[in-house]
Amino acid sequence: MENCKHEILTLVIEKSNKVRCRHCHLTISEDELENGYCPECMEAHNVRHCDFDKVSRPDSPTTRYYCENCGIIIECR
């Protein structure tokens, strides 16, 4: 990795698919919602809450690149 010149870079696009439960405020990805209801509310209170708010990705000045040769992530501001 120390000898890599990072000549082949790929832009890493970050997308957010996170949701937050309106009741317990658990933040979880939509992929993890197997049954469509909050697993935390179900486990703690035996209630199936399906009310979620989308969590947007904060706009950050940091751009990330992935080096195809060595696999390192390079952050640029």
Report on the structure:
With 77 residues, the protein is mainly beta. The chain is 9% helix and 31% strand. The strands form two sheets. It has a three-stranded antiparallel sheet with strand order 1-5-6, with no helix packed on it. A three-stranded antiparallel sheet has the order 3-2-4, with no helix packed on it. The longest helix has 7 residues, at 39-45. The protein is elongated, with a radius of gyration of 18 Å. The model has no long low-confidence stretch (mean pLDDT 87).
User: Count of DSSP E strands?
Assistant: 6
Instruction: Give the fraction of residues assigned to helices.
Output: under 10%
Largest sheet composition: 3 strands, antiparallel
Spell out the helices and strands N to C.
Answer: EEEHEEE
Number of helices, where a helix is a run of at least 4 consecutive DSSP H or I residues:
1
* Gap between N and C termini: 22 Å
Shape annotation = elongated
What is the radius of gyration computed over CA atoms, rounded to a whole number of angstroms?
Answer: 18 Å
